[in-house]
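Please discuss these two lines.
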Amino acid sequence: MQGKIIKSLAGFYYVESEGQVYQTRARGNFRKKGQTPYVGDQVDFTAEENSEGYILNIHERKNSLVRPPIVNIDQAVVIMSVKEPDFSANLLDRFLVLLEHKKIIPLIYVSKMDLLADSSSMDTIRTHYQQIGYFFSYEKAELLPLLKDRVTVFMGQTGVGKSTLLNQLAPHLQLKTAAISGSLGRGRHTTRAVSLYNVGGGKVADTPGFSSLDYEITDSESLTAAFPEIKQFSYSCKFRSCTHRHEPDCAVKDALGQGEIWQQRYDNYLQFLSEIENRRETYQKLSKRK
């Protein structure tokens, strides 16, 4: 039989196949191969009546996230709040870089707009991201049609309201939510395990919240590719390995000067590039000591 893993808990894998869910375990040979089944995996499995089944084979994955451990994702709703916690374009761009690198379509959703007395600054930010080509919305009703026939991850900083949004889109889920901590200014972790739920004709995952992330990019070329608007202009740079920082005849810097690239996005690009270079230098120093 074939199916998709929709939940992983305490060593059990729950596989959905033709409308039924089967409780399975992974064969011991997966450990020998260094393989671990993840939520989202398409698998071959056996299932006998009144007994647990076994996963026999894991199909090839098109992409994966380490945290949360989930695979074969079509798109991700990146949830950012305007307050509690405050909106951060820098953090949003970190999510977008990760998703672009993984070939996962990002959908940006901003929550808690009712906490803003004036939305003009957020409207300006929205316009910038829409000009790049990103979906960017404050309206949950606009998200629902986009979930059909897709595997969608809901992700964002802790406390932005991932579980709350999912409960509004699909009240039958009744996912647990938690109040914002006054002393920390962020929500408590309410999601313990990754699960795929049926919402809007597709599969969605509510994932554990986190406040930072590491992306798997180690060079300027890969970072450039993760910024669509910078990538677009980079093809006209004089040097193929242009970092768009100090090189002459840089089409990206020309576009920046003409207002075709948003200064804040470019600044975040430079910051991420610096972080990548610092990590590489640290790794090289540690390697020499060994």
In short: Residues 178-191 have pLDDT under 50 and may be disordered.
